[in-house]
Amino acid sequence: IYYSQTILCLSCMNPMLTLALVLFTGSAASVDTVLKIVATAGETVLLPCITTASNDVPPVEWTKQGTHSSSVIAFLYRDGCETFEMKDPVFRYKTNLIMHELHHGNLSMLMSNVQPNDSGIYQCVIPNKKKQVITTLELWTISCEHLGEVIF
Asked: What keywords sit in the KW lines (predicted)?
């Protein structure tokens, strides 16, 4: 695993499960800082999103930026459960939250069997009256053969 301030490169060492965990110390991370995560095709990746712990779990919306500034819903959690009808069919059976961690402020999303078409900009948002962006990150999914060719 290679880690710098904004790049996390996941190796081909464990293709079954790769967890990208990011711990922020001191002040909150700036929304302008985009974490870059590189994963190999077929892995399960954790897209990190940490907020303040609360007894009342807020609604959580994970979106992937699409073409022409539109976005698609990768995961939507509200009223205590996943909302399937608004989830983009591409992400059906592919994305989950860690439900027992929600009360601890961990709103991170697991994405299984990532493929190159999963690459893109993702946002973790609390969609209240004012959309509060918690995390913005960029996921790059490549095949293991091309891992050494990635230039940052």
From this structure: Immunoglobulin domain, Membrane, Signal
